[in-house]
Design goal:
The complex is a heterodimer. Chain A contains 22 helices and two strands. By secondary structure, chain A is mainly alpha-helical. Chain A has a domain of 236 residues. Chain A has a two-stranded antiparallel sheet. In chain A, α3 runs antiparallel to α4 and α4 packs parallel to α10. Chain B has a single domain, classed as Helix Hairpins (Orthogonal Bundle). Chain B has five helices and no strands. Helices cover 72% and strands 0% of the residues of chain B. Chain B is an all-alpha fold. Chain B is elongated, with a radius of gyration of 21 Å. In chain B, α2 packs antiparallel against α3 and α3 runs antiparallel to α4. The chains are: A mainly alpha, B mainly alpha.
Chain lengths: 510, 125
């Protein structure tokens, strides 16, 4: 019963939770957390049941309001969308657990708005993953985008500016997508994805179809934040609150990559794939290079997101099964890495009071468990064997070799080396240099001069080595970080099982 | 040349609207003008959909007793119109959110001019 209705239940429950939260919170504040948590837990359960059902019995199709697919809107849960749904709902659940203490510290009187918007955001993403209709996808795309503008605008003083920039670009992306869909609609007369992919090979006049595809893909790559159009992404991730960036960063852009998979599988047009794979390779290298120069840890992670979305796009556009498996595995892996990293950087911001990497010396002494989880994520990001990051990169490289694209093999390897540079720069500062009180003073010198507090600097004698007091994240923040860190290793060890049972079912025929 | 323009002038008009909107979004320094540009490209996309439903000599998709039921060619395609109702709602919501953000920006920085805004953000650092 539940499994057959899973495609509708998942987005609808999120949207219902988004509506209930403001109503209940009006009468009793503080309840919104529990509603959000309850919704996330139940949806995670439903997604798992749906995935189980899809693996054993094949895709589930849900016809909204009982209208048959080519006429009505269809929600489809096949193995690909079930896989994405599990990732979305799992990371939503983990971030909801994490948000409790973090929100009290960062946005004490805005919890209701935050939970309402985050549920709306998740509903939009789940809808994108499950819908089988092009126009419905546009609506869900805008729901999730509008909610994310709101989430990103709650933060530091300059957060509304970053959110506004994202809004301008994101709306342009959505409109490009809408313009593209009208070309497809004119050529085929239908909006149902399965129907479109049946009709498109028989369309005689292909020029509008190609124009439509180009417009759709242009819209999606704006949402993905891939290299030439990435400017909104670092600002938006950096200025949002820690919980919001932990919620948006792991899955926001991945779902756009999922839409790219859907669009590219409905119609074969090789030149587009070639251009996209070059853009992806450019994005891999440029994201890694730009990440090296960033002093702010969240900004560095945002640039590394740009590089990693490049890996996923490359895997999709190389169009062979190995690379595709790599791309899907990397969607999972990168979500997990970014969850750990953004959640721990939120903890660092709360407990050490800074996002500047130069001032994070002694991080493992202050927060030993977080540091352990963080180093697992770093190992996965670089690709050291027991962790899962190694395997997705391995599949991507094998796919590139099979396609004979040696340039892309080089790009992946180069980016891995650059990843080593920017991540181990942080590791070097945080782990291997003791915390010096003197350093702190050197760095804030500029500020103290402005404030006229020069007196302390004069008697700065020899370097004072001092350990900061141990100040671990609270248990509700630490628990999701550790769960994901264990998950990274488990996915790495059991990646063969995961690929055989789930991912290989989602690979389309090439 | 003239025939092309004559036959497709609606498309040319919409393309112009779209490009002007994009220009305003990218080049104008005032945030309100950016929002106006955004609204323009949304209108262009919506009108493009409506245009896709148009048929020469067809009537509105409401049952007309004078037209026999076996000839649906004489009715316009109603689907784009209904879809665009949703798209208009989305456009209005986007407009609302963007104006709310502009208000928040104005409260924080006391300006809506982008150059001025960047200067004040630099100062703050």
């Amino acid at each position: 019963m539940i499994t057959q209705n899973a495609p509708a239940l998942i987005p609808v429950l999120y949207l219902v939770a988004a509506m209930i939260i403001p109503m209940v919170d009006y009468f009793r504040s503080g309840l919104s957390y529990f509603i959000a948590l309850l919704a996330s837990i139940s949806i995670f359960g439903i997604s798992l049941m749906g995935l189980q059902e899809v693996i054993t019995n094949g895709p589930i199709s849900y016809h909204l309001a009982g209208w048959m697919p080519p006429l009505g809107i269809e929600l489809v849960m096949d193995s690909l969308s079930a896989f994405i749904c599990v990732i979305i709902s799992a990371s939503a659940l983990l971030v909801m657990i994490y948000s409790r203490t973090n929100l009290v510290q960062e946005l004490p009187d805005k919890t209701m708005g935050f939970y309402g918007l985050s549920m709306l955001f998740m509903g939009g993403l789940a809808g994108i993953a499950l819908t089988g209709d092009f126009f419905n996808l546009f609506v869900f795309l805008e729901i999730s985008a509008l909610a994310s503008y709101g989430l990103m605008a709650i933060g530091v003083k300059r957060a509304p500016v970053s959110a506004f920039r994202y809004l301008v670009l994101g709306t342009a992306g959505a409109i490009f997508y809408l313009m593209g869909v009208v070309f497809i609609f004119i050529s085929t007369g239908t909006l149902n994805m399965a129907d479109v992919s049946n009709i498109l090979p028989h369309v005689e006049y292909v020029r509008p179809v190609i124009a439509g595809l180009v417009l759709i893909i242009l819209g999606i790559i704006i949402k993905m934040g891939i290299f030439p159009i990435h400017h909104w992404l670092p600002d938006a991730y950096t200025d949002a609150s820690s919980t919001a960036s932990a919620l948006i960063a792991p899955i926001g852009t991945k779902v756009a990559a999922y839409v790219l998979i859907r669009v590219l599988t409905i119609y074969e047009f090789p030149p587009l794939l070639d251009i996209l794979s070059w853009i992806a390779a450019l994005s891999i290298v440029a994201g890694s290079v730009l990440a090296i120069a960033q002093p702010n840890i969240k900004r560095m992670l945002a640039y590394s997101s740009i590089a990693n979305i490049g890996y996923i796009t490359l895997g999709i556009t190389l169009a062979n099964p190995l690379a595709f498996i790599g791309a899907l595995l990397h969607i999972l892996n990168h979500s997990m890495m970014k969850l750990v990293m953004f959640m721990s950087s939120g903890g660092i911001y709360n407990n050490m009071g800074t996002l500047n990497m130069a001032r994070m010396r002694g991080f493992p002494l202050v927060m030993p468990f977080t540091a352990l989880a963080f180093i697992v994520a770093v190992m996965s990001m670089v690709g050291i064997p027991p962790t899962s990051g190694f395997f997705s990169k391995l599949y991507l490289i094998l796919g590139a070799v099979e396609a004979g694209a040696w340039v892309f093999v080089g790009a992946i390897l180069l980016s891995t080396l650059l990843g080593l540079v920017y991540l181990f720069r942080f590791i070097n500062i945080a782990f291997f240099r003791p915390y010096e009180k003197y350093d702190d003073r050197m760095i804030i010198q500029g500020e103290s001069r402005k404030l006229g507090l020069n007196d302390e600097d004069k008697d700065a004698g020899p370097k004072i080595y001092e350990t900061m007091p141990r100040n671990e994240m609270s248990i509700s923040m630490l628990l999701p970080v550790l769960i994901v860190a264990v998950g990274i290793i488990l996915v790495g060890v059991f990646n063969g099982v995961l690929i055989d049972k789930v991912i290989s079912l989602a690979v389309p025929d090439f | 040349m003239l025939e092309i323009i004559e036959g497709y002038y609606a498309y040319f008009f919409l393309m112009l609207l779209f490009v002007i909107g994009l220009y305003a979004m990218m080049m104008k320094r005032n945030l309100m003008k950016k929002i106006m540009g955004m609204s323009m490209i949304q209108s262009a996309a919506i009108l493009f959909w409506i245009l896709s439903a148009f048929k020469e000599g067809a009537t509105v998709p409401i049952l007309d007793r004078a037209i026999s039921l076996d000839n649906p060619d004489l009715y316009l395609n109603p689907l784009p119109h209904t879809l665009m109702l949703t798209a208009i709602v989305v456009a209005v919501v986007t407009l609302g959110v963007s104006i709310a953000l502009a208000v928040a920006i104005y409260q924080n920085y006391n300006t809506l001019d982008e150059r001025e805004l960047l200067a004040r953000m630099e100062e703050e650092k």
